[in-house]
Design goal:
heterodimer; A: 555 residues; alpha+beta; Nucleotidyltransferase, domain 5; Gyrase A, domain 2; 3 domains; five-stranded mixed sheet; 16 helices; B: 227 residues; Alpha-Beta Plaits; 5 strands; 20% strand
Chain lengths: 555, 227
Amino acid sequence: MKKLNLNFKSFLEKLKKKEESKEKKKLNLRLKTEAFKNFSFTDLKYKFSILKKYDYDIRNVIGVKGEQRYILYTDRKLIRIYHGKLKSSALLSTYVPLEHATFYNFTVEKSVLEKVDLDSFVETQIYENAGVNETEDYIIKYKVIDRLKNPKQVVIETIIVPAIMLKNSFKDILEETGYIDYISFPAFAYKALYEEQILHPANDIFAVILFDKIFLTFYSDGDLVYMTTLSGGLGQIFKALEKLKIKNFNLDTFKKLITQKGLDRSKFTKQEQIVLGIIQKEFNNILGLINEQMNRVINEYDIDEFDRLYIISEYGKIPGLHDYVSKYINLDTFGFEFYEKYNLDRLPVDPFLFLGMLEAHYAYKKNDQRFNFSLFLRKPTFFYRPSGIIILTTTASIILFSIYPAILFYQGKVLESKNNILTKKKLALMGEKAKLVSKKKDLESIKDNLENTINEYTKKVALIKEFIEDVYKTKFDYIPKSQDLVDITLLMNKHRVFLSKLDFEDGVFYVDVYALKEKAIPHLIDDLISNGFSVSFTQVISDNGKYKSQLRIKE
Amino acid sequence: MNKENIFDKIDSYFEGRDKKEFYYVLAFIVLLIGFVIYYYIFPLAQGYKEKEENLNKDLKEEIAKLNNDISVLRSKIFALNKKISQLKSDLGKVKKEKIFYEELAKLLDFVNFNQYVWGQFVKGCVDDARRNGLEVVDIKNVLYTQQKKEPKRVKKLSRKKEVKKPQKQKFISKKLDVTLTLKGDYKNFIWYIYDYENRKELIRVSQMKILSPNSFSVTFSLYGKEQ
């Protein structure tokens, strides 16, 4: 049976986890959809924030207190549970719980303020008069209030928080992020309600009832006037009820009693009326103290009356308290649910956390860090930090000094690239030249061969011509001797010259002739000469009636 | 807290220090970078550029020279091609001329002299003399060679041997002298000589004698080309 019960429990747990994760997914989707719908160029500006000094987006503020993590979208007036990383562009805020702070105020002449360094003056006053441990470090935030009836004086309201508390109380956050953009204190944070126009300026009292203290803050026209801590609180009621010796009555039952029944008469039975009576009586004391302080402020400050009272207890809202208080001190009384309109999901948001988130937004918007208790502010973006500036300077120096060498190198590179092209071109030209040289050589060889062939042929032709010429000359340079002989014979016959002997040798006819007439031989010679012969002769001899001679006839 | 990185350490170092110190560090960094770049890197870049510049100049000069060489070569090749085409044309002409002259020379093959021609010529001289009514009383022949001065061969009808110098001609030279002693009519003798002088063969009468009205002597010189 036990086993079955365990299985059922684990099943339920799984189911619950599944549902939770589904819820988360739905929520993320909704947020993304909303973010898309609400996209603007301002979003874009924040996304590219590398050149800004800080990379935060002041429109969104994450508030952290213990396990509670919320994000306030100020532009959309919306508050959500925050599941993302704390280290983000949204401002990160938390607050100093009231119980960790000490309130101290003092009056000072206005003329004095003009003569002193205010920070040192306030610090000195605190260490001398506020009863703080002089060996301890404190973070002091103060506000000069010029609302006293005596116009020559001002009040300096101070909040003193031990530095060690600020260092230790937010370790969880700091381990995750290394910074907290804003640590607010509620007394200063109320101002944001007026700036956000959640409250219209009036004379207001903000009362927070803790177990052993009551914190009162007075605002007039949206500005802090006075704040104080009173002894008393819920512990006073607890002690009074303890005296009734109710069975099983302890702090838990007291808390339940206060938060569930409070001062609502209808929730108490007849037997419980005595308890209600005690609670009313103790609340009367508390309200008496508040009333007393209210009157004091009216007496001392330039304020005639108060309009509203905002009251809350350490345990949260107390049923019937507002009606009871409004009847008792005749003021409009309200709770601390300032974020009602922002809280669409009805989340149980700590009102001081909401106030802190709102204050963080306005402090960064107005660049007013006077009331920021954070000792661990977000570091500037990289290029605004010394390391970033060194890197930037180094990079800029390298770039600047490298410009000229880089130009030279670039020019060299361009030349190298051109040279590569030129080298390729040169190689191509060398190749082309080699081809042309080879081609020229081939052509020269062809030319030489052709010339040789032509020469050979020409020589052959010349030889043949010469041969033909030789033949021609041999044939036609020769005058036929038969013709000469016939011519000579005909002429001899004509002149009746007779041949004794003829000898032809070496182109010359040696002709021995005789004639019967004296002039026959001379007439023959004349005729021979007139026919183109070259004739020479020896003398013509007359022998026995014959005239003889030897002619030498040349063709 | 987040673990500090080098940048956080630098930030922490300068936190709360005098700003002057930070500016000195920046100035030192700037000077150091300037020194390193201009002492070590700048000469490299400059050297690199100069090297490439010189190379570029050399390459341009070489390319210009190559371009010039190539254009010279191209013009030479162009000229050679032109010359070759001219030569080819010339060769064609010369070939044709050669063929023409060779053909022409073939027509003159009768000038070729050899033993057959020699024999035929000597025989023809005798036969033709007889055909012309002449009696061949004697015949002798002298053969001329270019190498040997001695007559190579003598026909059977002659016992005399004579060697004479050949005439000076490149191709055509005297190859043979045939001397015939004849008897017959003068008219036949002249006709006989006329017949031989009008033949296509290169025949000349180198000697001639008329001893009596019926007795003659004639020397035919046959010219020709040694084959």
